[in-house]
Amino acid sequence: MVQWTDFERATIQDIFSKIDSAVVGPAALSRCLIVYPWTQRYFGSFGNLYNAAAITSNPKVAAHGKVVLAGLERAVKNMDDIKTTYKDLSALHSEKLHVDPDNFNLLADCLTIVIASQMGQAFTPDVQAAFQKFLAVVVASLRKQYH
Amino acid sequence: MLSKKEKKLIKEIWERLTPVAEDIGSDALLRMFASYPGTKTYFSHLDISPGSAHLYSHGKKIVLAIAEGAKDISQLTVTLAPLQTLHAYQLRIDPTNFKLLSHCMLVTLACYLGEEFTPVAHAAIDKYLSAFAAVLSEKYR
After folding, report:
1. How many independent structural domains does chain B possess?
2. Which of B68, B63, B94 is nearest to B80 (CA)?
3. Do residue B122 and residue A35 have CB atoms under 8 angstroms apart?
4. Can you give the pLDDT at residue A1?
5. What CATH number has the domain bearing residue B113?
6. Which domain holds residue B53?
7. What is the pLDDT of residues A121-142, one digit of tens each?
8. Residue A135: closest CA among chain B residues belongs to which residue?
9. Which of B103, B115, B120 lies closest to A34 in CB terms?
10. Element at A103 (helix H, strand E)
11. pLDDT tens for residues A18-71?
């Protein structure tokens, strides 16, 4: 089981209580599609992803960004057993969506960058380490049901 | 693959960061040490505690080298030739670590530039740092 220090626990709860998920989710997903364009392969039905401006203003990307963030918020609420919380989600990504799990790290990195640019200097090295540990647990849990 | 626009953007950003090279460099290093403790093993001969003189001077060196390369990206192999030799034969830092520092450098830039660190700027710099790391490890074997 994952051991969280008091600092890590408090940091994660604090970050997620302060962010506007309606902004952060879409920002992270659109950034991922722009910075790592091959990730667009999973979004063929989303319409115009032709350039950065199109991606940023695409309503389907925005809607899906919110879905992703809502999923993360479930992990934040169940930090002590993210693995179980994500069992079905993991199976979904593997068996239905056929997403290469390496992509989870790409989205995680983009989310880190979005949070960093919002928090500025408050996103200290220790806060970053705690946040990245949380995302690593999330990614590992999403990988769990792949076979 | 970097477009002309991206090369220009990269050059401009690193020019702006040159006067604060110490701050940017030491911040990126500290982030790397905090998130990836294994990277500290390469610095057992230095004092890498927050605020230390070693941290600032080393961070400055790294950022200035990145900025120098950004002035003419098409000449990266020429510009980095001495550093290639240094990393291959003396430092022998495992190249997977370059990715870790690059990531932390991007986080530092995000904190420093805020909204200005747009997805387009992020993509361009990520590509540049990948190219930089690849050139740096060319003489390894």
Report:
1. 1
2. B68
3. yes
4. 81
5. 1.10.490.10
6. 4-140
7. 999 999 999 999 999 999 999 9
8. B35
9. B120
10. helix A102-119
11. 999 999 999 999 999 999 999 999 999 999 999 999 999 999 999 999 999 999
Nearest CB partner across the interface for A116, out of B30, B33, B110: B110
Q: How many CB atoms lie within 10 A of CB A23?
A: 15
**Distance of residue A107 Cα from the nearest chain B Cα, in angstroms:** 13
Q: Which of B9, B119, B125, B114 is nearest to B66 (CA)?
A: B125
Chain A nearest-CA residue for B109: A117
Residue B76 pLDDT class (50, 70, 90 cuts): very high
CATH superfamily of A6-143: Globins (1.10.490.10)
Average pLDDT of the residues in A99-107: 94
| Pair of tokens at residue B34 | 């905090």
The structural domains of chain A, with segments of one domain joined by +, span 6-143
Which amino acid is residue B98, in one-letter code? F
